[in-house]
Amino acid sequence: MCLSDDNFQRPFDDSNKTCWITGWGRLYYYGYFSAGPQPNELMQVDVPLVSKQRCMDFWPGKIDDSMICIGRDQGGQGACKGDSGGPLVCEFSGKWYLEGVTSWVSIPCADALKPSVYASVRYLKSWIINKISHSPSGPAQASCNFDSGLCYGWQQSDTDVFNWTRHTGSTPSLETGPSSDHTSGFGNLPFHE
Fold it and tell me: Are strands 95-104 and 49-50 parallel, antiparallel or unpaired?
């Protein structure tokens, strides 16, 4: 996936346009004595983005520009304890962009009218690029172009669009991604309910 891009307008407060979160967190969590099980498989769910103003209404005095919120007003599905650090991705023009990183959630998880809060990659992008560029292991490519290859040194499989191989060494991922419409494939799994 690519880092967030200011050229695309994020679909805030539009329940018909959703983004996706993934994680290994608890399947439910009501508190210390009511912690649900952890999944055996990576979970994913599509979620709508919540505007900053609406999120501030739900979390007065706790939201700033470095944050982005997700969730359905009725609750039911979303991030939970153990999902911290996981990605929030949105698709724009056929490419996936990292828009957020799981930060904190309400207890119980995915509670009605309590959006989950993510670090906004768009807000933090210059800091991220600076850290990548000055990494002890050398500069890394911080953007990608799916039309001419994922990133330098990678090649997409002719038979599995979710399988990329590094020119030096491999990172096999056969049958790990969902189908392009997210209705089938190994990655199409129920999320926190």
Answer: unpaired
CB 176 within 8 Å of CB 186: yes
Domains and CATH numbers, the chain: 2-125 (2.40.10.10)
Enter the pTM of the model.
0.69
Report, in this order, helix, strand and coil percent for the chain, each rounded to 5.
Answer: 10, 25, 65
Calculated CA dihedral for residues 133, 3, 6, 63, nearest 10 degrees: -100
> What is the pLDDT confidence band of residue 65, given thresholds at 50, 70 and 90?
very high
For 53, the token pair is 């103003």
- For residue 160, name the pLDDT band (cuts at 50, 70, 90): low
Q: Which of these, 49, 44, 33, lies nearest to 77 by C-alpha position?
A: 44
